[in-house]
């Protein structure tokens, strides 16, 4: 079942006008920002399908930039997100794509600063609910509605067990888990949705594992 | 966990409970949160809905200038007392319009189940409130009942115009509202299901064709009529009228119709009212140029 909570149906509380094209877009932007872990200096946003055709009318553009500025769906600053981005010297570029996406409401976000870059694809599946389907070329499935950690690691035996051991030690329960790789034996990505927020100490401990390259977290 | 309307009704009737109670119990089970936490979160949404209705009735205008002020006109008309249909139904219509006018003006609303269809559930709730004088708690329960039916639609079909047309969006909202009205008026869980079925049957095939891609024309008036549809269907169900096609099969029919609906009629602003001469003219006026050619 795609929808698990009554608050997926009655909710979210949000700035209009569209749950999929405004609130969902804000959430996709905010997940990108959270994984990036800091404010990007530049952002490139690609719109596909219905997003490409109607983003101006739905405020999808201001909403996604609002999300990248770390604003929640009900934050009224979303309305003036473009001006705020300008004040904070964030360069924003929109690209309308003609490519036919798997889902009508698809956005690709590429963000970065002087030291790092991140690429993410998100879809808005209705009623404000979203899924992140791609991160830096890795396929994944992430809702952004639960606390989660995203671990980039070497594609080798024992990686999952090592991370799971740490979570187990701190009595953290895994709700959903996903593993993805581009090529056998190279880099892989673990997406772990958990039931409670994960503290920085745990993140540091996972980061210290020799098999792990990078860890990012999503706090509820 | 209930997967369809038949199971939801069966669980409620066998335990002699209301649909809202079954929804609360399931939410407690799934989220692990207490009844109080869940109730309080829903009460906050109710508060947001109430504020949006009040703001819309005072009058708002959207950024495009296309919509706003109709809720004010309707309230004034009701006050004069010369209406033809009925006070509660017109009040529901005006409050549905109020909510969606606020939504179009980028105001704060609660999606039910989406923002584009956010007017129907609160519109009917705050109109029926004046007729039935419910407690605050009963008003929160109205939202859980709506949510239970919306939950079934969302998991078995779709709730967004981009995925299934307006029948999926305002159609779902109207069905959810009809069911919740029946419960608040003292109807049985099975009557709730019939009210939803009757409502949704009358919205099957409705396309999503927003002018200039804005959630304004025709969305606001579709919410108005969604509310009217829900009110009448609720009365029919309370009178004992039943839907010959069971609610789950109506939802399934809506799903199949939505799958076969062309993309041009699913929130792309390429067909229907969006592609009328006036629709295109408004689009050009708002954006300073037509966004798409007619070819």
TrEMBL record, chain A:
InterPro entries: ACT-like_dom_sf, ACT_dom, ASB_dom_sf, Fe-S_L-Ser, Fe-S_L-Ser_bsu, Ser_deHydtase_bsu. The keyword Transmembrane helix does not apply. Its cofactor is [4Fe-4S] cluster. Pfam families: ACT, SDH_beta. One of its GO terms (biological process) is gluconeogenesis. PROSITE patterns: ACT. Pathway: Carbohydrate biosynthesis; gluconeogenesis. Keywords: 4Fe-4S, Gluconeogenesis, Iron, Iron-sulfur, Lyase, Metal-binding. It catalyses: L-serine = pyruvate + NH4(+). Residues 148-220 form the ACT domain. Belongs to the iron-sulfur dependent L-serine dehydratase family. This is L-serine deaminase.
UniProtKB/TrEMBL annotation, chain B:
It holds the Pfam family SDH_alpha. Pathway: Carbohydrate biosynthesis; gluconeogenesis. Its cofactor is [4Fe-4S] cluster. It catalyses: L-serine = pyruvate + NH4(+). This is L-serine dehydratase. One of its GO terms (biological process) is gluconeogenesis. Belongs to the iron-sulfur dependent L-serine dehydratase family. Its EC number is 4.3.1.17. NCBIfam families: sda_alpha (TIGR00718). Keywords: 4Fe-4S, Gluconeogenesis, Iron, Iron-sulfur, Lyase, Metal-binding. Residues 15-274 form the Serine dehydratase-like alpha subunit domain.
């Amino acid at each position: 079942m795609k929808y698990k909570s009554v608050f997926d149906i009655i909710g979210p509380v949000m700035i209009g006008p569209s749950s999929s094209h405004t609130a969902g877009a804000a959430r996709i932007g905010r997940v990108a920002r959270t994984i990036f872990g800091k404010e990007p200096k530049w952002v490139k946003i690609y719109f596909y399908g219905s997003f490409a055709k109607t983003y101006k009318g739905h405020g999808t553009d201001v909403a996604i930039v609002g999300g990248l500025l770390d604003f929640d769906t009900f934050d009224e600053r979303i309305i003036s997100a473009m001006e705020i981005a300008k004040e904070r010297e964030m360069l924003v570029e929109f690209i309308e794509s003609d490519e036919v996406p798997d889902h009508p409401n698809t956005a690709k976000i590429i963000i970065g600063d002087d030291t790092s870059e991140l690429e993410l694809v998100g879809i808005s599946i209705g009623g404000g609910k979203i899924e992140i389907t791609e991160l830096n070329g890795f396929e994944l499935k992430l809702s952004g509605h639960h606390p989660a950690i995203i671990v980039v690691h070497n594609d080798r035996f024992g990686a999952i067990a090592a991370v799971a051991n740490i979570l187990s030690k701190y009595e953290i329960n895994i709700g959903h888990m996903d593993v993805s790789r581009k090529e056998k034996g190279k880099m892989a990505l673990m997406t772990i949705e958990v039931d409670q927020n994960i503290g920085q100490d745990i993140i540091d401990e996972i980061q210290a594992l020799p098999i792990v390259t990078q860890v990012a977290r999503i706090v509820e | 966990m209930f997967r369809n309307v038949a199971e939801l009704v069966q669980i409620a009737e066998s335990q002699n409970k209301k649909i809202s109670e079954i929804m609360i119990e399931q939410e407690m089970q799934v989220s692990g949160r207490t009844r109080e936490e869940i109730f309080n979160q829903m009460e906050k949404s109710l508060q947001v809905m109430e504020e949006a209705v009040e703001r819309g009735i005072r009058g708002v205008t959207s950024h495009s200038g296309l919509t706003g002020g109709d809720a004010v006109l309707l309230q004034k008309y009701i006050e004069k007392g010369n209406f033809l249909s009925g006070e509660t139904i017109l009040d529901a219509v005006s409050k549905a319009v109020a909510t969606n006018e606020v939504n179009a003006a980028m105001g704060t609303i609660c999606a039910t189940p989406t923002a584009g269809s956010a007017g129907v559930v609160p519109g009917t709730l705050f109109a029926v409130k004046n007729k039935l004088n419910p407690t605050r708690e009963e008003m929160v329960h109205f939202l859980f009942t709506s949510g239970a039916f919306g939950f079934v639609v969302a998991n078995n079909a779709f709730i967004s115009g981009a995925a299934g047309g307006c029948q999926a969006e305002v159609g779902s909202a109207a069905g959810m509202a009809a069911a919740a009205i029946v419960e608040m008026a003292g109807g049985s869980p099975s009557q709730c299901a019939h009210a939803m079925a009757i409502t949704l049957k009358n919205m099957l095939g409705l396309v999503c064709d927003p002018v200039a891609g804005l959630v304004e024309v025709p969305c606001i008036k579709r919410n108005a009529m969604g509310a009217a549809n829900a009110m009448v269907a609720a009365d029919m169900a309370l009178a004992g009228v039943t839907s010959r096609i069971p609610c789950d099969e109506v939802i399934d029919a809506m799903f199949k119709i939505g799958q076969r609906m062309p993309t041009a009629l699913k929130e792309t602003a390429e067909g229907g009212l969006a592609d009328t001469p006036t629709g295109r003219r408004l689009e050009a006026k708002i954006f300073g140029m037509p966004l798409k050619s007619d070819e």
